[in-house]
Design brief:
mainly alpha; globular; two-stranded antiparallel sheet; 151 residues
Length: 151
């Protein structure tokens, strides 16, 4: 699979969306852990990929419905219960978005599938230049820098 401009855009967004070091990290406070709700809002509203479809002030429900509608899985229970959005979840979400934007996504029951020749979403991201680690770290930093306060 060839890399697309989308990967570069995701990386650029994540690096430019928040300060490199948040005030919380400078004070020695552990930054907050992203939840599925946080990730849905950030991915749908703030990556720039979906500006035509998702308004900047879209509700959490709208963001989750949009992401699920395009094949990026955000389970209701994970969102409602505040489940932690892990590095693995970030790899899956960013990998699914990469497949959708490149036009190479395959779906089952409305969900983008991991390509058959790949063992994990982490491996997929590494092989395709999707820097999910930087994406996840930027989500953590955005939350620590008061991203929700600006919402």
């Amino acid at each position: 699979m060839k890399n697309t401009w989308h990967v570069l855009f995701v990386f650029a967004f994540f690096l430019s969306s928040v300060q490199v070091a948040s005030a919380a990290e400078k004070d020695g406070v552990v930054p907050p852990v992203p939840t599925y709700a946080d990730a849905a809002l950030i991915l749908a509203r703030n990556t720039g990929f979906f500006d035509r479809y998702v308004e900047k002030n879209a509700s959490l429900n709208d963001c989750v419905a949009f992401l699920n509608g395009i094949g990026v899985r955000f389970g209701l229970m994970e969102v409602v219960n505040g489940k932690e959005f892990t590095l693995h979840d970030c790899a899956r979400s960013m990998g699914q978005i990469e497949l959708i934007l490149s036009g190479e996504a395959e779906y089952v029951a409305g969900k983008v599938l991991l390509p058959k020749d790949v063992d994990s979403w982490e491996s997929f991201c590494i092989m395709n230049g999707v820097d999910f680690i930087a994406g996840y770290e930027t989500m953590v930093q955005a939350l620590g820098a008061g991203w929700h306060d600006a919402e």
